[in-house]
């Protein structure tokens, strides 16, 4: 009887894992079909690219491999998209196939890599987009040797038509369809629930638990749920009057610590980026000290202004200018650079509202000083964006030194402006 029960448990577990794997695969197929049907035509035509060739080699896959549907690659393989003047972009896979790709049913033709020259010549594209990018790693998948081989196969005449697909890749990835947004919301649920459990007494015992213990708990939760990450080890750190003391080290968490974390999870090719803050009560304390709570509240006010200000249809640079104008009018001080806070009796602020999506730091328009090229991109309805800020406010309990409050949660740009994708950080978490 015991053996039968054990066998049934194994069978149920196997069926459960199979169902989850298929569920995720089906959702990715839906994303790809929607992107190819709805986003790819406008992305190619906006960038005046007639044909887009994404190359892959066994052991050296393009960053867009999952977006394209994956598949089995032996030597060389090509995903080829051609604007043939119809509503639908033609899709072909040469030298790549297998169950996962072919059963996904999003390509019109499967053939051999040896057909490349004939395939291109027959369609005679005027501009051929290749994944060559100076600015974005995600759009820079073409290796030098693969470029030389393409030039040799297609000949000098077609090589003259090669152009960078940098902006095409940015547009294709950052203009979202409903199926992607649904996945992102699911990823966000994993992200914040794991983070908020990590910053609780379920995980932390003051005087015993270390910062790296918390980080490893979060990594283990990723492992259990088959989640990826763009950032490696979660950043779990202590901030004091003189700034960050330690990050994901063997430093033991003490009473009176202000704890912060920065991390994200990856689910079905969608990656989050978010932060949380906690305070460890001292003996005899029953709530967060007033000065620390006020600093957090100032950060929330900044977040509210950012949310109300961002609208689609303008460049990220114009959005940034509008945000700082609104913050200044509300009495906040714009910092000259990251961590360059002042001794003013004002809250110093710097924002970094960057693109998110297929990495924790995405490839679309970005309202962030560290993404200068993408400051020039237009904010579009359906873009995913991290609402990230750093607010520095004086804390009386620290002798007037400033506490840096980092807030970050992920949102969607809609016609109405910013809409959150999951419950955002509402308060400082309390560890007793």
UniProtKB/TrEMBL annotation:
It comes from Maribacter chungangensis. This is M24 family metallopeptidase. It comes from the Bacteria. InterPro entries: Creatinase/aminopeptidase-like, Pept_M24, Peptidase_M24B. SUPFAM superfamilies: Creatinase/aminopeptidase. Residues 193-415 form the Peptidase M24 domain.
């Amino acid at each position: 009887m015991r053996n039968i029960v054990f066998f049934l448990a194994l069978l149920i577990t196997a069926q459960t894992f199979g169902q989850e794997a298929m569920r995720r695969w089906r959702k990715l197929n839906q994303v790809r079909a929607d992107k190819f049907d709805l986003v790819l035509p406008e992305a190619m035509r906006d960038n005046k690219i007639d044909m887009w060739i994404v190359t892959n080699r066994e052991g050296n896959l393009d960053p867009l491999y999952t977006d394209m549907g994956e598949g089995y690659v032996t030597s060389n393989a090509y995903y080829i998209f051609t604007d043939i003047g119809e509503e639908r972009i033609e899709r072909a896979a040469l030298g790549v196939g297998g169950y996962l790709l072919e059963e996904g049913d999003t390509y019109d033709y499967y053939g051999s890599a040896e057909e490349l020259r004939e395939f291109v010549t027959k369609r005679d594209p005027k501009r051929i987009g290749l994944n060559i990018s100076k600015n974005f790693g995600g759009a820079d998948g073409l290796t030098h040797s693969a470029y030389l081989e393409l030039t040799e196969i297609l000949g000098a005449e077609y090589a003259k038509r090669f152009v960078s697909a940098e902006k095409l890749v940015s547009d294709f990835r950052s203009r979202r369809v409903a199926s992607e947004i649904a996945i992102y919301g699911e990823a966000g649920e994993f992200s914040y629930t794991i983070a908020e459990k990590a910053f609780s007494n379920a995980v932390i015992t003051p005087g015993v638990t270390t910062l790296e213990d918390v980080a490893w708990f979060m990594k283990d939760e990723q492992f259990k749920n088959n989640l990826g990450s763009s950032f490696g080890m979660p950043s779990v750190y202590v901030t004091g009057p003189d700034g960050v003391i330690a990050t994901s080290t063997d430093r033991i968490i003490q009473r009176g610590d202000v704890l912060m974390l920065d991390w994200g999870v990856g689910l079905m090719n969608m990656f989050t980026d978010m932060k949380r803050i906690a305070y460890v009560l001292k003996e005899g304390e029953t709530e967060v000290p007033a000065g620390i709570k006020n600093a957090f509240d100032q950060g929330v006010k900044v977040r509210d202004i950012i949310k109300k200000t961002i609208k689609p249809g303008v460049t990220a640079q114009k959005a940034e200018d509008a945000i700082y104008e609104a913050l200044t009018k509300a009495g906040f001080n714009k910092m000259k650079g990251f961590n360059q806070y002042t001794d003013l009796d004002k809250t110093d602020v710097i924002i970094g509202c960057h693109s998110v999506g297929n990495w924790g730091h995405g490839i679309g328009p970005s309202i962030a000083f560290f993404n200068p090229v993408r400051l020039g991109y237009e904010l579009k309805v359906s873009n995913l964006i991290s609402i990230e800020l750093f607010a520095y406010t004086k804390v009386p309990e620290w002798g007037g030194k400033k506490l840096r409050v980092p807030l970050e949660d992920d949102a969607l740009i809609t016609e109405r402006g910013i809409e959150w994708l999951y419950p955002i950080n509402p308060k400082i978490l309390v560890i007793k």
